[in-house]
Protein 1
Amino acid sequence: MINYLNLYKVFFYLRYVEETISKKYSEGKMRCPTHLSIGQEAISAIFSCLVKKKDYTISMHRPHTHYLAKGGNLNALISELYGKANGCSKGRGGSMHLVDESVNFMGSTSILGNNIPIGIGLGLSSKTLKKNNITYIFLGDAAVEQGSFYESLNFAVVNNLKVIFICENNEFSVYSNLSLRQPKNRKIFQLAKSIGVNSNFSTGKKLEDIYKKMKNAIDYVNKNKKPYFLEIKTSRWIEHCGPNDDSGLGYRSLNKLRLWKKNDFLISLKKKLNTKSNITKKIENKIKSKVLKAFKFAEKSKFPKIQDLLTNVYE
Ligand SMILES: Cc1ncc(C[n+]2csc(CCOP(=O)(O)OP(=O)(O)O)c2C)c(N)n1
């Protein structure tokens, strides 16, 4: 059963963090390329309600909401974006390279498809060490076009790894629609199935459907000790990389975008919860204050020292 109040808390938190980054980005203090998940938060919010602390997660170039949903520290995320020494990757990684082993968030990477075999390795290590946890691998629809995707799914299925692939299908690889990149009638989740990984698909239009399918995936993996692939449709509301609206560029259907925005879960959740009183207001104020404090904290924090330039790097 979905706890809608908890879901709203996470959802609002993720949206507000991403929107605040977007608002502050033009100040020029966050100097890393930044891919925001505004419009795609439902997947992370539901993931946050279902994932366990012991589970591993590995993400890609759009990782903020995955990190926070896994229990990542907000101050550590924002400091990382500001390049500060107390960032989760010590100010070395920026937006795309987050890592925080304290919450089993094992990394995120800018190289498309690169996180998939790393997740498989984590799954293999869990099996070898009998850790009894799940590894979640987040990927977009374009990562399916990388060779590592096929090798990894094959390895996971042959070795019975407890891995869940969560494919956030927003239909775009930067400006290229899926229809230009993959055969017309191919369904990504069926492709995974054809390799031997049990799979399912959510239209992403109903929170309950995403929740049910993610929960089923977890139950399947725990019961069968095998991998699972879940494809969820979603929509990125702003530009691929950066804080701005890009609806004037003409590469995507504005009608489709409008429909996704009309179906904003934040609004429907709020309506559902505020039947008697405005209970979401208090929650929102608390979250806003926490988020704004994190930005102040990051701004005041120190940059890494020049003498630390060569620590934690391969020479
Ligand atoms: C190996 C490699 N090729 C190309 C790129 C450039 N690139 C960065 S993000 C991206 C598209 C990613 O699309 P998708 O995986 O669907 O995720 P989304 O950005 O839509 O969330 C591309 C082609 C890259 N980072 N790595």
Protein 2
Amino acid sequence: MNSFEKSCTVAVVGGGIAGIAAALAAARCGKKVILLEKSCVLGGLATNGLIYIYLPLCDGNGRQVIYGIAEELLHDSITLGPGDVPPNWRNEKNAIEPKRYRCTFSPASFMLSAEKLLLDCGVDIWYDTLLTDVCCKNDRVEFVEVCNESGKGRIYADTFIDASGSAIIARRANLPCFEGKNSMAAWALEYDSNAEQGAFGRYFDSFAVAMSAFDAESKVSMTETVRKKYYDGMSVEKIAELTASTGASGRIVSDFILENHRILRRHYEIDRTYRNSLFPVKIANMPQIRKLYAVKGAYLLDSGDDEKSFDDSVGVACDWRKPGKLWEIPYRSLYAANGAENLLFAGRSISSVGDAWEATRVIPVAALTGEITGVASAMAHDRNISVVELNSSELQNVLHKRNIRLFKSEI
Ligand SMILES: Cc1cc2nc3c(=O)[nH]c(=O)nc-3n(C[C@H](O)[C@H](O)[C@H](O)COP(=O)(O)OP(=O)(O)OC[C@H]3O[C@@H](n4cnc5c(N)ncnc54)[C@H](O)[C@@H]3O)c2cc1C
């Protein structure tokens, strides 16, 4: 029995960075937009997951690469403060300056200011609303089933944007996806009574540690210091079991969170014994897992594709790991290979694997793909066609007018 039904032009599932940008872009094109978010705040991993470093919009050689809503959100993340961007990017764009165009921000400030941006352009935000199922008919998503305090409901839309961070629409619709491989990380916001100056002003800063990583042979590796501190006396097999996972399941996510919390407890217990100045202020409200699932799209962006150029490129992503490395994003990597003509993907579940997934899963690129999908949805509606049928050159023209760089040659 359904308790409620809603319909709109564009339904965005997930209120992380990608979902915020997608909803903003579609609503500013005059479309009726519903944004569904299972938690009670916006920002996803960037805020609720306490990953509050807005990685760069520039190429590391002084040239800006990402513009548009990604740039707007970077500045919005610090409007309620604190946080800063390097002076050359504030005042004198494209100056030759080693500091990259990025910033750190307070998660709570960003949650509040992003919500205002969306409300100001009329986005209908549904918090505490979980997508539970998807109904497809004739190669289209007909509606998504959701659950909240009212009970079960259905959301109908012309276009759906999967900005869930885990390709949840694709998986519930049984579309093929790739599983991400993950290693353990733990970030918390802490108070240090001995601190001179923290990232958010005196006393407050992050405890952030990458516990483990994968080596060249895909085996879990860990520094000796971390192993001694958190995994003393444990076998390599047991460490790998606790700190590495592939994809997600109810059990994997719960075990990841439990281990993450155990590490934090250990961190503060050690501090109690030796320094006694630290305590946790906030721990993450969602699992700090980097890669869950990516859809298998009409084009799969893969390692080495930074060498390529695509006729249907709709944006350029810079690589946070290496100055000068750039990735064109083909429109085909934002929709599924088959089976869902009115479904787009934004953020960390676009069609990418390997090195390409590492480059595209981060905050600025999530905002970029969010904006592209929001614009594409609005254009498809204006032309009374599906997003898959949308002519990529027409989309490119509109994105160009929005100041989005489409090809590496434009940087
Ligand atoms: C340990 C770690 C360190 C990182 N470091 C950085 C960094 O320094 N800088 C950087 O830029 N990036 C970093 N990242 C990556 C970055 O934080 C994320 O990839 C990015 O924020 C993803 O944004 P998104 O919008 O695609 O997805 P998400 O942030 O995952 O947003 C998805 C949203 O969808 C909602 N949702 C999910 N399922 C449902 C459902 N069924 N129903 C309704 N809502 C749903 C979620 O609650 C969430 O709000 C890091 C990630 C990790 C894990």
